[in-house]
Every structure is written in C-alpha cells, then in structure tokens.
Amino acid sequence: MLYIKNGLIVRSEDFSYHQLIGNIVNEAHRYNEWNVDELIYIDISRDEVYDANRDDHKISSFNSHESMLEAIAATCFMPLCFGGGIRTIEQIDYLIKNGADKITLNTGAYENPALIREAAEKYGSQAVVLSIDYKVIDGVPKVFTNFGTTNTEVSLFDWMKEAEGHGAGEFFINAIDRDGKASGYDIANIGKAVESTQIPVVACGGAGDMYDFLDLASETKVSGIAAGNWFHFVERSYPRAKQLLKKNGINVR
C-alpha cells in the first residue's frame, strides 16, 4: 500500500507524520520485480478534494497530458487500486478509464453511501473497495474519516455491514493507532471484522517484520495482508514474507 502526497510517495506514521520516500513510478517498477499481488495507491493530498485535472496529479518529468495515474498504470503490471478524495462517479470514471482496475472509497462513501451502489452498478462490486480507517477507543474500533481526523463515533463492524449492503466488493481496513509503529497487526479486531462480513477483507497497519504476516494469516481468515513502511525499507521484504507464509502452509499466490 502506497501513500501519495503532492505527487511523491511518503512514509506515514500516526496518519500525521509523512516522510518523503520517492518517485511513484519507480516504486511501481520495484514492486513489479517482486511480483507483488496488487498495488494500492492512495493520494492523501489534503489541500482540496480529488480532481483528475489538478496540477499536483501530474508528474513534471512526463508529458503534461499524462496524469499521475496514467504514468503508474503504464509501469504497473499487476492489479492496480487507486483512491483518495473521491466524491463523484465522474472521478471514478476517470480512474477506471485511465488504468485503475479498482477504486477505493473512504470519506466520500461515508458521506454519500449511494456512491458505493452507483459505482458497483456501473463497474461491478469487484471494482469497488471500501477503505476504512479506524482507531480503538475504549475497546471499540471506531471509524474515522478525512484521513483520520474525524471521529464518526460509528463502530467499524456497523459501517462494514452497511457498506456491504450498498454493494461494496471488498474491505481495506487500516488501524490508525498502529500506522508506522511496526507493533504488529490488530489481530483481534481484524478477526472480528472478517467474521462480520461475506466479502474479502484486506488488513493494514502495524507490520514490523515478516512474522507479523504469519501471525495474522494464522490467527484470522483475512483475505489479504497489506503493508507500506516495511516494504519500503526492507530489502526483498515482499518475497521473504511470502516464502515464510508458504513454508507454514498458508495458501498464497
């Protein structure tokens, strides 16, 4: 999972500190070489709602008519999911047309749940990923929107149930309080989330070493395991994690 801020890849911690890492296209090329199963790009630039024609969605080293997404798609030879600030079906049209296999909705879907159904009816549920950022408060995982700044007071599990009813085809859940901490995945709540829905759940937040992947895969029925920072900074981290999972009888591609 890759965060983009103002056209560059950043490392995130606590959803508030962002360290510049590098070029978005170079990262896609690196993960191609590792045979990563899927890339999820989320643009967290917060100066305004996502606009496909915004200047900071262009790469200066490319022709001005090439968008950031188009440049990524030209290099990415695996399923590509893209999101960040999406509020309308027209924005989704743009992303699908220009290289995204899936789109991920977060705040826009919470504010307007009908957008989930509209996108699912037009492109199929398999193309609509519902991204949910949550933080555990008094023992209950609560949904946060606006990149972790707004507490909705709604339970993670309640929002998942509602979103599934609107046509979401996959969940991407991210633990805010584990972001960038390398403290391991939130196994208890991820396990409950998986059991609360009939659609695939991909979990993120907390990977510190490859054994964190094994713990989560062994103790839950999660469909996918995502990570950002660990993959950025550890050489051949993805193939090493996958080899460990296979060695321990976990069914991975």
Could you explain how this protein is built, in words?
Helix 8 crosses helix 10. This protein has one domain (2-247): TIM Barrel (Alpha-Beta Barrel), CATH 3.20.20.70. The chain is an alpha/beta fold and 253 residues long. The protein has helices at 24-33, 68-75, 89-97, 107-111, 114-123, 156-166, 187-195, 210-219, 229-233, 237-247, and strands at 2-5, 8-13, 17-23, 39-43, 80-83, 102-105, 128-137, 140-145, 150-155, 170-175, 201-204, 224-225. The radius of gyration is 17 Å and the shape is globular. Strands 1, 2, 3, 4, 5, 6, 7, 8, 9, 10, 11 and 12 form a 12-stranded mixed beta sheet that branches. Strand 11, helix 8 and strand 12 (224-225) form a beta-alpha-beta unit. It has 10 helices and 12 strands. It is 35% helix and 25% strand.
Name the descriptors.
alpha/beta; 253 residues; TIM Barrel; 12-stranded mixed beta sheet; 12 strands
Major sheet? 12 strands, mixed
β-strand percent reads 25-35%
Radius of gyration: 17 Å
CATH topology: TIM Barrel
The tally of domains stands at 1
CATH architectural name:
Alpha-Beta Barrel
The ordered H/E elements are: EEEHEHEHEHHEEEHEHEHEHH
CATH first level: which class? Alpha Beta
Could you outline the blueprint of secondary structure elements for this entry?
Blueprint: E1 2-5, E2 8-13, E3 17-23, H1 24-33, E4 39-43, H2 68-75, E5 80-83, H3 89-97, E6 102-105, H4 107-111, H5 114-123, E7 128-137, E8 140-145, E9 150-155, H6 156-166, E10 170-175, H7 187-195, E11 201-204, H8 210-219, E12 224-225, H9 229-233, H10 237-247
Parallel strand pairs: 1-4, 4-5, 5-6, 6-7, 7-10, 10-11, 11-12
Antiparallel strand pairs: 1-2, 2-3, 7-8, 8-9
Helix pairs in contact: 1-2, 8-10
